[in-house]
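Order emerges. For instance:

***
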Amino acid sequence: MNYVDDMAVTLRRILTTIQVLTPEEKARVSEYIKNSDPSVNSVLEALK
């Protein structure tokens, strides 16, 4: 569960900094998250 908490903290940090990112930085972060492997969705699928 600590890993899940760590992920939630990281996502909260990302959410709080989004407002100061430029549109280019937002696009870069978005693309990076979309292409990360494994993704949150792949982990959720594996847990089913």
Notes: Residues 5 and 25 are 25 Å apart (CA to CA). The chain has a mean pLDDT of 95. Residues 2-47 form one domain.
